[in-house]
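Continuing the series of single-chain predictions for the mutant panel. This is the parent chain; the variants come on the following pages.
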Amino acid sequence: MRGRDKLFEVVEDTPILTRLVHFAQGCGAVYVTLPEPNHPRHDLLTDTQAVPIYVPDAADGMSASIKRACAAVSETSAKGMMILTGDLPDLTETHFAQICAKWAEDETRYVQAKDQDGKPGHPVIIPKSSWDDIETLQGDIGLRNILRKRRIEYVSYKDYGPTLDLDTPEAWDTWRAAR
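Parent structure:
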């Protein structure tokens, strides 16, 4: 993004991180990982009920954030944890509502969104029974290795909301022009 933070990119008049937090709050408590307390992203949580989780080892990759989030959530009564990246501009409140409803049918299973081509994406909900597996994560590959070994209940969407992430200013410009 050449110095720009994509989580500040505006989608429908709201920074994307704030927007996704608001949607996720419809499913329960929301925790957001941030590198440090005075990180600029902290300001994006001001009008939300999100609980920040600080990840001083964020340079170790996505696994560090997931491990810290899991440690924080494991201190609550939560039966599962939704994980998603904060850079998916086409995710909507409907995506969140449907995946949470599917998980509520059986809180012991994994639930993951798929896009219109059948490609797995976000959000992913993992049951508490598997949180010990998170300690095995390394680097910046997220949950991929854990999910490969599990039976997953998928929620399929007729769009690319679960998988469309934009990593360059040009990609954001193209996306906005197409809306």
